[in-house]
Amino acid sequence: xxxxxxxxxxxxxxxxxxxxxxxxxxxxxxxxxxxxxxxxxxxxxxxxxxxxxxxxxxxxxxxxxxxxxxxxxxxxxxxxxxxxxxxxxxxxxxxxxxxxxxxxxxxxxxxxxxxxxxxxxxxxxxxxxxxxxxxxxxxxxxxxxxxxxxxxxxxxxxxxxxxxxxxxxxxxxxxxxxxxxxxxxxxxxxxxxxxxxxxxxxxxxxxxxxxxxxxxxxxxxxxxxxxxxxxxxxxxxxxxxxxxxxxxxxxxxxxxxxxxxxxxxxxxxxxxxxxxxxxxxxxxxxxxxxxxxxxxxxxxxxxxxxxxxxxxxxxxxxxxxxxxxxxxxxxxxxxxxxxxxxxxxxxxxxxxxxxxxxxxxxxxxxxxxxxxxxxxxxxxxxxxxxxxxxxxxxxxxxxxxxxxxxxxxxxxxxxxxxxxxxxxxxxxxxxxxxxxxxxxxxxxxxxxxxxxxxxxxxxxxxxxxxxxxxxxxxxxxxxxxxxxxxxxxxxxxxxxxxxxxxxxxxxxxxxxxxxxxxxxxxxxxxxxxxxxx
Length: 533
Known about the structure:
Blueprint: E1 11-15, H1 31-36, H2 38-44, E2 48-51, E3 55-56, E4 68-72, H3 79-91, E5 95-100, H4 110-118, E6 130-131, E7 154-156, E8 162-164, H5 179-194, E9 199-202, H6 231-243, E10 250-253, H7 260-264, E11 274-275, H8 278-281, H9 287-302, E12 309-311, H10 320-323, E13 327-328, E14 340-341, H11 346-362, E15 366-370, H12 391-395, H13 440-443, H14 450-463, E16 473-474, E17 483-488, E18 492-497, E19 503-504, E20 510-514, E21 522-523, E22 527-532
Parallel strand pairs: 1-2, 1-15, 2-5, 5-9, 9-10, 10-11, 12-15
Antiparallel strand pairs: 3-4, 6-8, 7-8, 13-14, 16-17, 17-18, 18-22, 19-21, 20-22
Helix pairs in contact: 5-6, 11-14
């Protein structure tokens, strides 16, 4: 029987490059910093690194505004350094999966600069979405679309035409109706596949194709720019490119959809390989809600032969140790920001986050670990307003603080900032003064630490034939409301107590791992355990 592709059950560690490790002392993380921490990542036990954009960029949206897809931004290093990173990671058995940003480029990209210079009606403008404005003098945007970062999704060029940007004005949307765009991105994929990358995470995978009529969103019969069926033809072509290369190259889609069935369309056998599971990420700490999402995920993705993926945090959302320490102010839905209700109880949030880690790593399929979650890092919610850098802060008129709180550089060692993140100056975002107990060095070797919980969980996950890809069976006959318990064969049971009372564990032959103390054969509230049966 052939060995399944690695991506079906991989644990992939997300590196937000500017906040991971600074190798040259300028206060911003870089490729040199990643290379210096490869032994740490090897000891953690992850299978691959997803690296946020490292391409040449003016950094208007911290790299998601790409000026050149074949160059590394000097802030992060060089192409030669990237190739060295890939080689060194491969030697340790770690794969490399960089971001690719196909929905938009930077306004400093050579194509967009040529489009501005060429003027209305030119071939250069056809690679983007330029339109005349509405109103007698064209002074109104072409339609009612809003930017995801606040304000209108249109900016007027000096010659009077408007261009589309679903994000910041510095990120003009590419026109995926144009053959040049298709050809360019397939060439970019080959450029990096030739240098050894193992796949790509696709940013805004659901947003490339727009209704060519550009209708107003209000009253539209189908969404004019999110999750349109035509996008799958793009990824079928990309799949063929990946299949030209050895080693099971893969894609993971960042695709926000309204229904699990819509997400499953992205991971059919001839389209992409995996997709982020945002429904799981956005689910509250509630047994019934989590069960519903888990079952729905496994059913809909299994119907198309795709593995599930599970993720608790990333660079765009509040860290889950802080989310789980309070209620949400309103139901969290796709394409809206999480709004917390009141201050976080971090002790409670940390207990739940540790239990959630064991739940996540026991589920069938693959998983993602966002840098610092293995250290138990909380959201930094008190960054001074003057230091906020996320464009959401300015574009929202200072009504949304944005995503900086989950992007604060992670602590490695020492008792005060920069905690080993940088060798010289301060980090690009300030670190809390009380993070000394959370550094990797402080937690190393401490069996009660979150770091050692993750290391042990990942080691057990590799050793247990029951874990990874496969199926689960719920233990419904013996499990009360508020408790999740399932079995995976051979001989493994995961129990998570989301209720308010201790739960007597089922019969077992041994305890493989627990998120907290298990006393008298009873699992305390907000704890999880892995059992051998």
